[in-house]
Q: What sequence folds into this?
């Protein structure tokens, strides 16, 4: 009897230790602050997906510590940083060219596995040339300044990069292409789309679910609203948003719902 009691006591103690063990959170938001102590690619908390920022975002102070600055930028295939800027790294593959004083990101270079994981999950990457507004309306008046303001993904970034590293510069623009873009904008003229795109851009980048972003075309009194219903990280770690669009043409409401995800180049692509 005594050996049985001893074994039972041991099992109960083990169960108590398990009950007080800290739970793991494999699905926590990957964009949050990370502990960068240790060897970059061998830290327990290092994730190949890593934080993801684009041109115009601000690199938080914890990612701008001296030990993460890049001095051998030439050997890493990066361009010479302008005065007041410095390259910072995440792991040994992703780089941010940011202002030393403010963290404002001028350029990004991503060399991790996110492109492959995006293509596995969403089949393809959407460049700005796929965008329905860019294809059909780029030579029109653009009253809301969508193209000149680089609200379509990739336009300003690709134009602003120097000749040695154009692919690294991106902006958090919006791309709406294919059948989805045609369905969402089929009853809008080019001026309507210009105003509507600004609401898409503001809505996706706001980070505030439930906020309403409205537009109105003074030329024909067409108007619309865009609301992000909620944000989430998909299983591959990409930031996504479910949204609802309502447009009023001749006073009649037309409602469409969709989903956008921020692809590896930083642009929000409307997936469906």
A:
């Amino acid at each position: 009897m005594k050996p049985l009691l001893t074994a039972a006591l041991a099992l109960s103690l083990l169960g108590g230790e398990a009950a007080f063990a800290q739970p793991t959170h494999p699905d926590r938001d990957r964009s949050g602050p990370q502990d960068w102590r240790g060897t970059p690619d061998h830290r327990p908390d290092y994730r190949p997906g890593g934080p993801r920022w684009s041109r115009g975002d601000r690199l938080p102070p914890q990612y701008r510590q001296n030990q993460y600055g890049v001095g051998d930028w030439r050997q890493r295939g990066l361009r010479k940083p302008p005065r007041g800027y410095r390259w910072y790294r995440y792991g040994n593959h992703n780089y941010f060219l940011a202002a030393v004083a403010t963290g404002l990101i001028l350029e990004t270079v991503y060399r991790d596995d996110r492109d492959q994981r995006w293509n596995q999950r969403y089949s393809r990457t959407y460049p700005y040339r796929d965008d329905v507004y860019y294809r059909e309306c780029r030579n029109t008046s653009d009253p809301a300044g969508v193209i000149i303001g680089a609200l379509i993904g990739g336009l300003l970034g690709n134009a602003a990069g120097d000749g040695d590293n154009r692919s690294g510069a991106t902006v958090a623009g919006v791309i709406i292409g294919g059948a989805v873009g045609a369905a969402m904008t089929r009853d809008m003229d080019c001026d309507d789309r210009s105003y509507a795109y600004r609401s898409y851009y503001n809505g996706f980048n706001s980070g505030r679910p439930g906020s309403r972003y409205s537009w109105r075309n003074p030329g024909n009194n067409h108007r619309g609203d865009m609301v992000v219903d909620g944000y989430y990280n998909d299983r591959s770690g990409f930031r996504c948003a479910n949204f609802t669009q309502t447009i009023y043409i001749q006073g009649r409401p037309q409602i469409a719902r969709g989903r956008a995800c921020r692809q590896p180049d930083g642009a929000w692509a409307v997936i469906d």
About this structure: The longest strand covers residues 223-233. The mean pLDDT is 76.
